[in-house]
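Worked example 3. Consider a protein that binds zinc ion.
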Amino acid sequence: MTELLFRDDAYLKTATARVIAAGDGVVTLDRTLFYPLGGGQPGDTGVIIRDNGERIAVVDTRKGAEPGTVAHHLAPGAAPPQAGETVGLEIDWERRYALMRLHTALHVMSCVVVAPVTGGNIAPDKARLDFDIDIALLDADRIAAGTNELIARGVATETVWITDEELDARPELVKTMSVQPPRGAGRIRLLRIPDIDLQPCGGTHVANIAEIGGIAVVRIRNEGKRNKRVEIVLRE
Ligand SMILES: [Zn+2]
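Given these inputs, the predicted complex is written out as structure tokens:
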């Protein structure tokens, strides 16, 4: 198992960890800052720093082959650290913070466009959600204005854990969720933006939605019968 440090503190930029295994361009650690690709959010990049000061670039992060582990992918040909070694970790914070701002912006926007979400993706420079909706109902200016109005409330985000049973006992929660939460892990992580959004999510978010600043809708496009795509960028 890899301890997921970003889960409790998405703002950690550096940490130390022990190498559990290394080979085939993949390093497994006992704990990590690096978010693995999932939920539409890309895997983190950054560096693993050895005791001798050598910096090994991490070019991508994915879920590991073993359940509960994280695979840090090195650049082709890079020499990995040794198993058992203690290393420093550093994520590309500028990239991650942009992803956190855009990711949280999608949560807010999903409450402005009231329709089932059928897809989504986040990149460091833009993000999108796909909705099952009549495209004539999607107005770029209105979506941007509505989203920015909510962002201007400047409320703090909260992580809430509930059990499968608690979710079953509170069916009204599911109504506000765009995606049915994964079952079977025993507990489900939710992101709550008070009075705005509540939905299951394992990604990294900003602590206060004011950090998003504001968004612009740059494109609305038909990507299929049930996929009307709304693409956003950060305004600044
Ligand atoms: Zn999220």
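Take a moment to read the result before moving on. Helices lie at 5-8, 93-109, 140-151, 164-169, 171-175. The mean pLDDT is 92.
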